[in-house]
Amino acid sequence: GCAFNARCRRAFGTCVQLQPQLKQYGEQMVACFAVDQDEHPGA
Question: Has this prediction a pTM greater than 0.85?
Fold first, then answer.
């Protein structure tokens, strides 16, 4: 799972089970399932 899931207030079940992949988000690189949900609401 994600290394930050225990201390992240946006963490959910997937964060405990899977390692997020690093990807471009604006001008930054992030590895976060919560950011993925922000990009795809309702997914």
Answer: no
